[in-house]
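Handout, section B. The chain below has 423 residues.
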Amino acid sequence: MSSQPTIKRGNDMRSTFAIAALFTVSALPAQENPFAARTRPFMNPAASRIIFKGDSSAWEAYHGKLDRLFFDGTGQVSIVHVGGSHVQADMWSMELRHRFQSAAPGVRAGRGFIFPFNLAKSNNPWWYVPEATGRWTGLRNVVRTDSSALGMAGISVTTRDTAATLKVSFRGDIYPGYTFDRVRVLHQMDSSYEVSAWDIDPAVNIKRRVDAAAGFTEFTYDRHLDTLRLRIARTDTNQRKFTLGGIILGSGDPGFFLHSLGVNGSSTTSWLRCQRFSEELAMLRPDLVILSIGINDAHDPDFSAARYEANYLELIRRVRTASPGAAILLTTNTDSYMKRRYVNKNAEAVRDAMLRLSASEGVGVWDTYGVMGGHGSIRAWEKAGLAKRDRVHLNREGYSLLGDLLFGALMEKYGEHIRTSSK
């Protein structure tokens, strides 16, 4: 258990060096971006910028929330990162989360959405540890089967046991310990089951609210905790099931939430199978949605640029159904090889599709492929110890570098907003 963290507000936030430097960058274009990451000789740092081929006005509301948070110390900014294995491991997203929550004093807020991937026999992000009892079976959006149980996580786990438990705690050098005072458990369950929360300290008061129609049970605590404990119990003799779709750890503190939604092997087609995607995404109230989907599409032998673009267009529409005012950012594919032998040339077709969508849909694009160095650059990343031998995935250092670069590009775009709004 942890006490409520001290929140710094107002003048402390106005005086932060990095934000002040961002004003300087905006006024003096020749100056370097203070948030820019260090690059390597084989990379193309000039490509690390947010590209708009069309209208960028959808980002004004997101930038306005950054203004209120950075300069008034009020409000929360919700960012959602969606993708495949690049996102599920929560290394790229982790670095983004860490950078946002370290940008100024008092902007930490909390962890946001998590999923116990180990219950589905998949790799869990190292930064939090789910411990469960009971028998669980998983369903992922990459499987062409019944998708009625899938929402924004793209994955679910189900138990038919009479009793099961779940405990989640945090660890790691980046996470000194996340605290929360509200929790929303996303689920599908019939009247035979209920989920309850508890703590080892009996003095902790926990209130419970069930919204069966919306598919969640919500808990509010009278203090901040750093460990989640849940019980799932069958309450009558009907042998039915309880399906868990994820957990949202919340807090009323000002700051950033960066929610990571990733499923290994998932493509645009996979995410379109998630029937409850928009409904659940709306619960996060996203201000910025980052879509990093495409590496698995591009590795499909039957890849079609036209189908890929159409799928992405539908995903953008579903995001806007969930949050009409959200800013949307598409990140192009990382450079990769097919079976470690051939450069995947579809990465350029993916980038072209995203740039067309930028023009027609008013979404931003960050050219991951170009930033890495373009065609065949994954070899240099591998040689530098930033990528794995499969020449598809990066390691922690590589994903952290991507997170730093993307954060720098996002803050540079925010600097343009400051320059424009301060005239």
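Note. Confidence is low (pLDDT under 50) at residues 1-17, 26-30. Compare this with the example in section A.
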